[in-house]
Design brief:
Blueprint: H1 3-15, H2 21-24, H3 28-49, H4 53-57, H5 60-69, E1 76-79, H6 86-91, H7 129-143, E2 149-154, H8 161-173, E3 177-183, H9 194-203, H10 207-221, H11 227-244, H12 247-253, E4 256-262, H13 266-279, E5 282-288, H14 296-299, H15 328-342, E6 346-350, H16 354-357, H17 359-365, E7 370-372, H18 377-389, E8 393-399, H19 400-403, H20 407-415, E9 422-426, H21 443-446, E10 454-456, H22 461-473, E11 479-482, E12 496-498, E13 501-505, E14 512-516, H23 521-533, E15 538-542, E16 545-547, H24 551-558, E17 562-570, H25 575-585, E18 592-597, H26 607-613, H27 618-649
Parallel strand pairs: 1-2, 2-3, 3-5, 4-5, 6-7, 6-8, 8-9, 9-11, 10-11, 14-15, 14-17, 17-18
Antiparallel strand pairs: 10-16, 12-13, 13-15
Helix pairs in contact: 1-3, 5-13, 7-8, 10-11, 15-17, 15-22, 18-20, 23-27
The structure holds thiamine diphosphate (TPP), 1-deoxy-D-xylulose-5-phosphate and magnesium ion.
Cofactor: Mg(2+); thiamine diphosphate
Function: Catalyzes the acyloin condensation reaction between C atoms 2 and 3 of pyruvate and glyceraldehyde 3-phosphate to yield 1-deoxy-D-xylulose-5-phosphate (DXP).
InterPro entries: Dxylulose-5-P_synthase (IPR005477), THDP-binding (IPR029061), Transketo_C/PFOR_II (IPR009014), Transketolase-like_Pyr-bd (IPR005475), Transketolase_BS (IPR020826), Transketolase_C (IPR033248)
Length: 650
């Protein structure tokens, strides 16, 4: 067969898949071909859009086997985190959508109910699927519905505490439920922790299966010498298993364990899944896979097996096509290392995202001063509280969206104890292609209610460095420093500083106080120019520290006719809301308009597109501001006319 014929033959099998039924009818040999076609398809498509290529290359065979053994959507397939559901999408009629993967109006990077009846959970925060599965299995049992529930969970996601809370309940409930552990030994970087070590010891122990075979043979050939002999042999077998395998742990919990199976052998996975399906109770199928399997640049990418290139990449090399830029993350990472060089009490914490948050840079310089806690943001917060109680100043670097789940820990374990912990929230505000679950738009509202917590929103590289230093200098309570995704914007020097507030622009007229939060500083400057063209004077300020609301900001507000806030976060409970309250408390009667992200689930796209959709562009804000201030002119004129009328009548 020529290369062309071969390619056409490959493309033909995948092209003929419009749903799971087309996977079920394939022979074992055809499945191998189909798997290769899927990998080609993934690389070809994702290299143009960016996306989670490494994780998906690793679950091709598992997903094929799932769709052969189970009947989705009647049976429920749940993907933990959901970043590895591309193959599932390909097999459930969505191949055409991959040209616009993660792009505005296109396919979501995660399961999506709007896209397909085969998708159920849309949450793309890790470690939730087992809890959903527990609930679903209970619901189907109570309603008398015979439907299988299957959760696919990675070894990384398994480091999250919710998984263990769920396992505890799944075991007690005893409902039929299949948990596929997709064990590739990695989160982004190699997965950390006791469980991960246990799993990898099993994976790396070639003697394991041989030992079991020997015991099995011994059992088979041993003449029936009665129960005691059997028990001795059984104990030997169990002892060996306990030494090298995690099943003892799962089986002690009450969950049947099947495995380990080669996760790239469809027939093996299929066999294990069928056994699990027929078991009638909770079963763990432990599938060992390789992240990035079948695509050399991913397999050989030491950093993260091409976990999720943010944009188009070169198929030959796996390198991003876009020219590298200096990101907010880089500025933070460099400054943190500089601070740590000066202050031995400063330590870093990452929740399985050392490279993406920049903490890796500190780890390379001071390896004994960085802790990777796994995908465990709640634990990260309280562990940081412990470190602070022990005399250190922890810097917990997480994405803004992931700190949401640690609210109680930040509130009570850290803030109530007035502990000096700095949370650095990367990817704050609208992020883009990952969609609504990944927008870091809630932090200022959610954590704004925490007593004693100070929140900084730097506007550029210089203020990020400065505010990070100010944050780690705080020794009587927690701090947050939040900044957006992507390339850091050009430095925007202040004209002067009033308390903590930077004045970025001012004019002779004091019509509007424009409070530009964080990276909206530059937008504020453009708005001021546009509004000035309409004859109004705008003072642009950056509060720098948005919580607590600086008293100086309230004083500045009192000196203007209109206050407008613009922030990259939800309006409810945001900076605008907080300033309005502070103004009410101070009896400042100046009207305030707050611009930000409206409540809702805003679909994915680029950050710029979404901000434009939300009206958060200089043009839109300038139009709004001009409209509001000109209406105020009319309103202030009207009472005068009314008085004249009244005088005329008298
Ligand atoms: C709560 C939470 N924290 C962090 C992340 C970021 N994140 C996405 S995937 C991932 C690693 C997942 O590892 P694993 O479950 O083993 O899946 P793999 O990518 O190896 O297939 C992390 C840390 C997240 N989605 N949710
Ligand atoms: C699945 C997940 O939560 C992450 O992989 C996320 O997609 C990373 O986003 P960035 O590309 O912004 O690092
Ligand atoms: Mg993994």
């Amino acid at each position: 067969m020529s290369v062309e014929q071969d390619t056409a033959h490959h493309a033909g099998l995948l092209a003929a898949v419009s749903g799971p039924q087309d996977v079920k009818r394939r022979s074992t040999e055809q499945l191998g071909i189909l798997a290769a076609e899927i990998r080609d398809f993934l690389v070809a498509k994702v290299s143009r859009t960016g996306g989670h290529i490494g994780p998906n290359l690793g679950v091709v065979e598992i997903t094929l086997a799932l769709h052969r053994v189970f009947d989705s959507p009647r049976d429920r397939l749940l993907f933990d985190t959901g970043h590895q559901a591309y193959v599932h999408k390909i097999l459930t009629g969505r191949q055409a959508g991959f040209d616009k993967l993660r792009q505005r109006g296109g396919l979501s990077g995660y399961p999506s109910q709007a896209e397909s009846e085969h998708d159920l959970i849309e949450n793309s925060h890790a470690s939730t699927a087992l809890s959903y599965a527990d609930g679903l299995a209970k619901a189907y049992a109570l309603r008398g519905e015979s439907r299988a529930v299957v959760a696919v969970v990675g070894d990384g996601a398994l480091t999250g505490g919710m998984c263990w809370e769920a396992l505890n309940n799944i075991a007690t409930a005893g409902n039929p439920l299949v948990i596929v552990v997709n064990d590739n030994g990695r989160s982004y970087s190699p997965t950390i922790g006791g469980l991960a070590d246990h799993l990898s010891s099993l994976r790396l122990n070639p003697g394991y299966e041989k030992v079991l075979d020997t015991v099995k043979e011994a059992l088979g050939s041993t003449p029936l010498v009665g129960k005691p002999m059997y028990e001795v042999l059984h104990a030997v077998k169990k002892g060996i298993k306990d030494a090298v395998a995690p099943q003892a742990m799962f089986e002690d919990l009450g969950i049947k364990y099947v495995g380990p199976v080669d996760g790239h052998d469809v027939a093996a996975v299929e066999g294990a899944l069928r056994a699990a399906k027929n078991f009638g109770g909770p079963v763990i199928v432990h599938a060992v896979t390789r992240k990035g399997y079948g695509y050399r640049p991913a397999e050989e990418d030491e950093a993260d097996c091409l976990h999720g290139p943010g944009g188009a990449f070169d198929v030959e090399t796996g390198q991003l096509v876009a020219a590298p830029s200096v990101k907010w993350t880089h500025v933070f990472a460099d400054e943190l290392v500089a601070i740590a060089d000066e202050r031995p009490d400063v330590v870093g914490i990452t929740a399985a995202m050392a490279e993406p948050t920049g903490i890796a840079k500190l780890a390379r310089k001071h390896p004994d001063r960085v802790y990777d806690v796994g995908i465990a943001e709640q634990h990260a917060a309280t562990s940081a509280a412990g470190l602070a109680m022990g005399g250190l100043h922890p810097v917990v670097a997480v994405y803004a969206t992931f700190l949401n789940r640690a609210f109680d820990q930040v509130l009570l374990d850290v803030a109530m104890h007035k502990l000096p912990v700095t949370f650095v929230l990367d990817r704050a505000g609208i992020t883009g292609p990952d969609g609504p679950s990944h927008y870091g738009i809630w932090d200022m509202s959610v954590f704004g209610v925490v007593p004693g917590l100070r929140i900084a929103a730097p506007r550029d590289a210089a203020t990020l460095r400065e505010e990070l230093r100010e944050a780690v200098a705080v020794d009587d309570g927690p701090t947050i420093v939040r900044f957006p995704t992507g390339a850091v914007v050009a430095d925007l020097p202040a004209l002067r500083r009033v308390g903590p507030v930077d004045v970025l622009a001012e004019s002779a007229r004091t019509d509007v106080l424009l409070v530009a939060v964080g990276s909206f500083g530059q937008l504020g400057m453009e708005v001021a120019t546009r509004v000035a063209e309409q004859g109004y004077g705008v003072t642009v300020v950056d509060p720098r520290w948005v919580r607590p609301v600086p008293a100086e900001l309230v004083e500045l507000a009192a000196a203007h006719r209109l206050v407008v806030t613009v922030e990259d976060g939800v309006r409810v409970g945001g900076v605008g809301d907080a300033l309005a309250q502070a103004m009410r408390d101070a009896d400042v009667q100046v009207p305030l308009k707050d611009l930000g992200v409206p409540a809702g689930w805003h679909p994915h796209g680029t950050r710029a597109q979404i901000l434009a959709d939300l009206g958060l562009t200089a043009q839109n804000v300038a139009r709004d501001v001009t409209g509001w201030i000109s209406r105020l002119d009319v309103e202030t004129v009207e009472p005068v006319i009314a008085t004249d009328d009244a005088a005329a009548q008298n």
